[in-house]
Specification:
Chains A, B: Its EC number is 1.5.1.5, 3.5.4.9. Chains A, B: It catalyses: (6R)-5,10-methylene-5,6,7,8-tetrahydrofolate + NADP(+) = (6R)-5,10-methenyltetrahydrofolate + NADPH; (6R)-5,10-methenyltetrahydrofolate + H2O = (6R)-10-formyltetrahydrofolate + H(+). Chains A, B: One of its GO terms (cellular component) is cytosol. Two copies of one chain form a homodimer. By secondary structure, chain A is an alpha/beta fold. Chain A contains ten helices and nine strands. In chain A, strands 1-9-8-7-5-6 form a six-stranded parallel β-sheet. The longest helix of chain A has 23 residues. Chain A is globular, with a radius of gyration of 19 Å. Chain A starts with 7 loop residues before the first strand and ends in a 5-residue tail after the last helix. The relative contact order of chain A is 0.18.
């Protein structure tokens, strides 16, 4: 028997599988009742190999869940105006229920302008300003997929957030900022840390819940994890390394996500679940 | 000589006066160059005495700054749909440059639906979802007036926020949440506290900057203010009492806003400044 207490691993792979199975069942029901299956449009500018791989993976998972996908591949020379036109056309197309713009799109594209061309009811990736505000104000809408996946993991492991101190490391528009807003909506006390934070270790040591979302390998030291804390590592760096020093953190935390197999698989699962929900809303298929 | 070190007071009355003078000068320039002066529409539902007073004050200050106001008084029985229609008409009216919906509007009104009927370019009170997201993402747009006033105060007193720990007590959509986002944009480490926070005094004790925005008299004890901290009290309670125990806090802080005369006057000043800016944008009068 080991003398070292180890945390329970939060099984994102298993939870994602259940989320996708539910989405698939619902997609089947929609298909039977509406005569058409949910459709996700994936928009890719250029041929960045990592982006091509991500889109291919999302399309393959969609297909397995009974979600059609429509692939829009635009040349690397596409302008912001052309991309906005393409997204506007998809927003207006009644046969498309969800829209995913694979990003980053490249430095010549105004990504914010592109995102804003996505109709809110089709924003299944949760990237529009309206979706962010809805997350922040607790209003109906689609959430950013990775923060949404984090919240589902916390819920699946019965983590009570009310009054707890949640520390979010990272403040990107699609991950850190919305994650903090969703935690705040669950009544956590939320601290946003980032590259300019003066004493990151000192703040992490106070955290009941740590969400690492910055993309810097092992930025968060295991010895700074408070004993019994919940550690969500949304970082994904070269060599399957997260933002948290897992080997030490696992000896102190109560719950921790592995990398890979923690947050990662949840992102696509939430994308698929939201696509199915969008289709149900647009096709007028109420929940059973 | 007193043995007690006292903080410098942050003079919101004086700063607001300067902001309004600048707005008035700019309003005069707009009037000369465009042949029409900036116009703020104030919309009031019902006759709540406090709301009537606020609107009257905003109109009087507007007039002194060379801003016309158009008063829309709607009966207390107005429905959300009627209010939305009224706000939509003002959004479409080229003679109106800014729109202020005095709130709260009463329990039978869906305030969010009403706010969203305000065109973003006329949202000089910074209440729309788009304005909130713009504040959060550092994009152009109008800010919520009270948080905007707080940021101007911090700037006027040369408070360097980068890397500092700012604690925001309160999480309302028009005050606490946007204040935190604006502080984060200035590279502060930001903690949101609220009624469910487990150890508010413990977190306040770590704060380099405290923003109290909750409306509970003397919720924040003076002895919890870290020596040398900056204290912004946006609370305003009966009897001219803020959310911070001023008498003790002033012996520990480096800078502190009095109540009244601190944050309060800044709110209207920012409203007027943003109305003039909106008019300049809509009338095509570039800044000198």
């Amino acid at each position: 028997m080991s003398a070292i207490q180890t945390a329970q691993l939060m099984d994102g792979t298993g939870l994602a599988k259940r989320v996708v199975e539910e989405a698939a069942a619902r997609a089947g029901e929609i298909s039977r009742r509406a005569g058409t299956s949910p459709c996700l449009a994936t928009v890719l500018v250029g041929e960045d190999p990592a982006s091509v791989t991500y889109v291919r993976m999302k399309r393959a998972r969609s297909a397995k869940a009974g979600i059609r996908s429509r692939q829009i591949g635009l040349p690397a020379t596409t302008t912001t105006a052309e991309l906005v036109d393409s997204l506007t056309a998809l927003s207006d197309d009644p046969d498309v229920h969800g829209i995913l713009l694979q990003h980053p799109c490249g430095p010549h594209i105004d990504e914010r302008a592109a995102f804003e061309a996505i109709a809110p009811e089709k924003d299944v990736d949760g990237v529009t300003m309206r979706s962010f505000a809805a997350m922040s104000f607790g209003l109906p809408g689609f959430v950013s997929c990775t923060p949404g996946g984090i919240m589902r993991l916390l819920d699946a492991y019965d983590v009570d957030l009310a009054g707890k101190h949640a520390v979010v490391v990272g403040r990107s528009a699609i991950l850190g900022k919305p994650a903090g807003m969703l935690l705040l909506a669950e009544d956590a006390t939320v601290t946003y840390c980032h590259s300019r934070t003066a004493d990151l270790p000192g703040i992490v040591r106070e955290a009941d819940v740590v969400v690492a979302a910055v993309g810097r390998p092992r930025l968060i030291r295991g010895e700074d994890i408070k004993p019994g804390a919940v550690v969500i590592d949304a970082g994904y760096n070269r060599g399957n390394v997260g933002d948290v020093d897992f080997d030490t953190a696992v000896t102190r935390a109560r719950l921790i996500t592995p990398v890979p197999g923690g947050v990662g698989p949840m992102t696509i699962a939430v994308l698929l679940a939201q696509t199915v929900e969008a289709a149900a809303n647009q096709l007028g298929i109420p929940h059973r």
